[in-house]
Amino acid sequence: MKLGSSTTEKGFTLSEMMVSVGISSLMFAAILTTSVSLQKSLAAADDFFATHMQQIRIIDYLSRDVKRATVVTTSADKQSVTCTLPKYIIAAGDADAGTGNVNAGKRRSPTITPTANGAVIDYGATSATIGYTLNNQTITRTEDGVVTTIAASTDSLVAETTDVELSNTEFATSTVTFLPTFNFNPANNGSPPSQSQRDKRDGTTVFAKAYLRNKRRG
Amino acid sequence: MVQLCSQKPISVTSVAANRSNVGLMKIKSNPESGSAIIAALVVIVIIAAVAANVLMNCTQRYNATSTQVKAWKEALYAAEAGGDIGYAECRRAVSNPGTQFTSSSWNAVAGAGTPTWTSAGATTFGPSNSFSTTVTVDQVWADTSSNPYYRIRAIGNAVVRGLKRISLDDRMNSTTKGDSLLRKIDFNYDHFIAKYGDGDGTNAYVQTVANPKVSRRIELIAAPVEPFEGFLKVLGAFSGPGSAGVVDSYDAHNGTYYFCANNPADAHYADSRNGNVAVDTASFSQGGTIYGDVGTNGGNVTHSNSSITGTIDNTISFTAPPVVQPVPPVSNPYKIGSPSTINPSSTSTSSATPDWYLYSSLNGVTINVRSDASGNPVETYVTVVITGDVGDITIAKGVNAKIYFTGNVNNKARDIINNNVDGATGVKNADGTNSTSVSRAGHLQFVGISPTNGTQQTISIAPPGNVWATFYAPDANFSLTGNPDVYGAITCKNFSGNGNTGFHFDKALRGTAGPPVEYRIASYIEDVR
Fold first, then answer.
1. Is the pTM of this model over 0.80?
2. ipTM exceeding cut-off 0.90 for this assembly
3. Cβ contact B183–A148 (<8 Å)
4. What tens digit of pLDDT does each residue of B406-419 get?
5. Beta bridge pairs of residue B377
6. A contact test, residue of B249, B309, B524 with most A CBs within 10 A
7. Do B524 and A214 touch (CB under 8 A)?
8. Do B12 and A6 touch (CB under 8 A)?
9. Which among B461, B413, B506, B483 has a CA at the least distance from the CA of B242?
10. Within 13 A of A97's CA, how many CA atoms are on the CB side?
11. C-alpha triplet B132, B67, B85: angle, nearest 5°
């Protein structure tokens, strides 16, 4: 038997090519689909996590201000909170700032007045006011007129705070929820959220209870 | 014929080699080439990119939430622990004054103007001692009775674990939202000391930090708590008043008590609805109306199952320190004898130098008052220590009698005679000014010395008559039968009152009813700079 003059055999047969192209197509399709899904999942998880960070920030801001407040009031819809705080630091222009504001930046010493309802601790004649407001998808913190946006999300962040005043103590309970975007359209075409959507919102709830330390029980 | 794809093509090279090397079998590698390795690499690169993205995000989020946010919260815990350390030392002013700020944990600060103490070094605690706190306490004020008010300043530090990365920043954009406006982390330098020094701008300098940390600073004011802040404090079970009874309040500044708690148009209506009752157990039963707030420790009191006009709180707890037998100062010892009529000395017109008397039991004793040149009664102070039971007693108008007893009180209300009047009309101070000690009940104070032998102390008041007095007896069971009215305030163990008994808290007792029994945090500030 004598072989032909061709000494090398290169290439693939047609069937090989068809099979390999078919398999490759399937593989690339799978990879592409998986990759897209992974990216979407990552984006959704990242968005979820970022929104969760905002939840924590809202709760931490609220808890810090409620703890040091003397008065906390909440709106009927639970979405606005106003805290009244002592002015601990002497600011330039305050009556006790002194000539040339030499005392500005110093800590204020309290004046103490015993009354029939216990001692009144007074840090200055005026107090600071801090308000939290939910406006569309933005939550702002306003301290003496200075507005700070502390959270903004397309995930429909909703913070609700209730102030509870008892005989010798007071506390504020806050919940912050949002609607994960990778599950539902938060706008919902302007319609109220469905039960399923509400259930998903409930699953994102972060809850905190902060006592007004200036109204401790005796 | 179409070659089957499973058949391997015959290599010409291999055939030729076989021809020239007959008898020697040689295996040569197959030069077959393909794109599988490239495809695999592409897949790996894609997956690695996705994984790296995930890992980077996770690391950043973990760094933020699990270390930096955590440390920020822990720093407050540390600061509040420091506040508690300082508060515990302030409370020694009541429980054990001789030991206050005397341990090696505290250093007195010289030249501070007011008495000031600072903790000797930082107190460390927590896992791997990652928390620390330092405390400074100073006496910020004292009331007219020289009761000190303390200011407690505590700094809490928490180590930030994990990567030394800034994952929170103060840029206000769509992703950061100013985290570091809220949470300030010192990675290399203590930002507070660098900018604010001691907090007042003094001694500011750049201080490096050994480990990344968060510091938070709080300021507390510890204020003394007076013996009576409401009508009734009960450490055990509460039962009363009877169905025809009532608990309300009045203010002796307005004169004699009259009932107006159901008349909003009355000028003293607001003063009539502070007949507060606090119970440190869940045991609470009630008949008549309580015009005031009610608190229990775990009870089930509601407005629907009770007759209470004020706020109900079933989650309160409190303490009432026990009483030890007082000892008169060396400069003002007991007067000689145990007379049935006490005629106070000239020095007794000052609350700082009351006359001291010691009785094994007291019954049928009258305490007279000092008078000025015009015959007006002058506020007179007498302290009586009784190592037994208390019987009939009468005090004259202007007398301030403090009765300590180790035994029991078992009297008819009419035999506890307090001739003072609400408003202190006609009574003078030693300097000739009109007395402002307006509370009739505040002039007669019974203090039950806590038994040390386990016996049960009792206070039993029976009809007829009414009582104007205060009772501070945290280890005594108080029972009131029949229809006497009690004007004043009570602190006791178990309380039982039935029938038509009326309980009327005199709000004028606040600020005048003796030394503090406790300290309370009256103010809380956090320095958020």
1. no
2. no
3. no
4. 999 999 999 999 99
5. B371
6. B524
7. yes
8. yes
9. B483
10. 12
11. 20
